[in-house]
Amino acid sequence: MTTHVVLVPGFWLGPWAWDEVAGPLRAAGLVPHAVDLPGLSPQSTPESRAAVTREDHLRAVQDVVTGLDGPVVLVGHSGGGALVGEVLDRVHAGVAHVVYVDSGPLVDGARLTPPGPGVGTEIPLPAWDELAAQGSSVDGIDDAGLARFRELAQPQPAAVATTPVQVADPARLDIPATAVCTSISARDLRAVASHDAPFHTELLDVRTLDWVDLPTGHWPMLSRPADLAGVLVDVARSVAPAA
């Protein structure tokens, strides 16, 4: 039976962000599906992004997952991890394992970005030094990679970030998960992750949780794609049904 790997990007990213991860997954016999989130394609406009809601992003991920036949490894990077956690509240069947890449599921009512007068209808990609100051460094990405990142990134639809997460079904926490720790070590994350600020995460509530350290910046699919793919292959092999 085919094992699928559904790849959900974080802020500003389209399916292109997973290009160098998808190849090794295919070579390992897996089928990757990089999710194209509404408003993040090069064809998007300020008007189209302003109309995108958090529900649109949740539906995009949910539609991919429910359309697959076979076990699914559901992967969320950064803000995509919060989407994955919320999708699990709606969809359990078929999802064999969840991978949070420098991310985690958020508690009910949490927001990725607080609403306020400084938040418009979209959130542009900040300068690299601003990202680093926010804890999202681009360490490990070479100059060509940074240029491609800047060229292909799209402003993030703000409503996706400012709308609170809604989760209620405790069964979401029964699905085994792996936390891939890149910009903070597993040891440090275990010490500080909580329902309270600044993380607002329920990561430590997951019943079965593995930890993997992959030291680099916040975007390992761009800085260490082969190593990230190796982690995902290992996870997929652990959930694949016996022949």
Automatic annotation (TrEMBL):
Pfam families the UniProt entry points to: Abhydrolase_6 (PF12697)
InterPro entries referenced in this protein's UniProt entry, alphabetically: AB_hydrolase_1, AB_hydrolase_fold, Sec-Metab_Biosynth_Hydrolase
Superkingdom per UniProt: Bacteria
Keyword Hydrolase part of the UniProt annotation: yes
Residue span, AB hydrolase-1 domain: 5-229
One function term, GO molecular function aspect: hydrolase activity
Keyword terms: Hydrolase
SUPFAM superfamilies the UniProt entry points to: alpha/beta-Hydrolases (SSF53474)
Name of protein: Alpha/beta hydrolase family protein
Taxonomic path: Bacteria, Bacillati, Actinomycetota, Actinomycetes, Micrococcales
